What we know:
The complex is a heterodimer of chains A (289) and B (297). By secondary structure, chain A is mainly α.
Amino acid sequence: MTEKKPKRSFFTLYKTAISSLFAHKEIFFPFVIAAFIKFLFLEIIYFFPRAPWSNMFGFIISKLWGPDSMHFPHNFLLLQHFFVKVEAPFYLLIDSYLIGVGVYIVHKINNEEVLNIKQIFREVLSYYLYIVAAAALTFFLIKGWFFVAKLAYARAELIRSTAGPFFFFFSTIIYGYQYYNLLANVLFTTLFVYVLPVVVLEKISILKAIRLNFKMVFKYFWITFFTVFTTTLIYLFVIWFRNIYSHGILDPGTIIWVLIAQICVTQFIYAIVYTAVATYYLLDKEGAL
Amino acid sequence: MRKVLLTFVIIFVSIYVVFSFLGRKSDYVLEKKLWKINQELGEYAKDPLSVPDRAFIEVAERCNALVSKYDQSRLKPVLRITSARAYMYAKEYKTAREQLELVISENKENQMMGSQALADIGRTYALEENSEAVLATYQRMLNEFPLTSLGLSTPLYIAKYYADKGLLAKASSAYDNAVLHYQKIADEHKGTLLGINAQKLIGTCYNAQQKWDEAINIFKEILLESPPELMTIQSSSAVVRSVNRVAIVKLNSFDIPIEIYEEFIKRNPGHELNPHFQSLIDGFIELKNKNVKVKTK
């Protein structure tokens, strides 16, 4: 008679993953590097309107985005604009690689191997292109959703009804827009969350990784979904902070703190989600899940 | 890892300190301070009677301190004007005027800033209800800044000033003088935006005097005689609205605007305004055929 394994609950697994992350702070290392690179970029564009940067770049910036963008408080609009523009290349080229490094550190810790950070960086780099492709897959799906969501938002803005089904559609879209996007983000991330860890851990091509990813997702859908969902809830803090800022109550310079919060929260979410899914994958591989 | 983290923090803080130090005298720092002062002044100005005069004087003094600190800044006149406005709220009109006179004397090259300061001097006299000084300021504006936006509007302000006081004979004479003044500028700057603006102001004077035929003639001249490249949707919209209002409402004629717009299309084939004028012509013909009369309430 085969012995039936006790089924592990989401809470136990999630707790194990988080404990493992905080017990081995080295896992945070690549995520801290990603945050630092973004902070540095933010710091540089923050100083753009001032000397000596203004002497070097003032002319180009004024020409491209108007003279106001070199002056307070309009420069903060440009700062946000720059930050949104670099989000995609940052995620695809830097974040994805550093997430891969994080996943590999989890694997090394799981195998109780000695951590040689330089060696880990080098090993993960050899799969850089596959990692970028894996990140691009989720990224462009989410961007595709944003495109559709924007069309729905633009349509909803045209509605003038103050009651009835059209008004319901209008209110649902307009007021829930950010939250639907967050939920869509969670869903798409859940669907492809194992691709990147599988590429790094198994050192296989992207197509094989996608196949393995779906195997894992369908096997542990709710565990994976709630891991991504619960962690992403922290991002609500950034949404609320941003909403308060957009109401014009705060000083224009507060946008810096909104962006800093966004960077910290995003990196923290990546650290938790990818440590958790890498742990699930390794446990499944060992037959312990 | 701790070492790396410490290195990151050191790099980050060093960049911040170095760039803050390098940019400490830049206008950006001053812009930030000025923005905060303006926000504060704007809040106080919502209900100035409930704010003690001392609060306005403190704002003015902060501006003055910044003027001393950022002596070479291009924002110095803006700081002085903000300071003067704060003094005006505190009813310290003489001190406000001293600040504004400094703006004029220190910025001889900057006509726009000078005219702004002089207009504020006029406001201080108006708040003191010193009519003679207000008129003298208008005259000074005409002499010192005649071609700035504020200077150009001054003859009209003088006429409106008399009209508001109920001095109708003086107002009528002031409108006549204004027309002569604007005509001189229009002739001297024919074919330029300044000339067109002066002609528009002549039209405003005729409208105020209810000289409808003269008003239509000047608006017609603007549309048909100005260089076509200066006749854009933005620059011509006020003129077109005036033509329609005066011709249809005051002179009860759809023929006048139809004739003007047809002539424009004939003289300027392919002009960006032609489709707009054609749609107006079509609309007016339809209204004319229906014998519609437009009356003001």
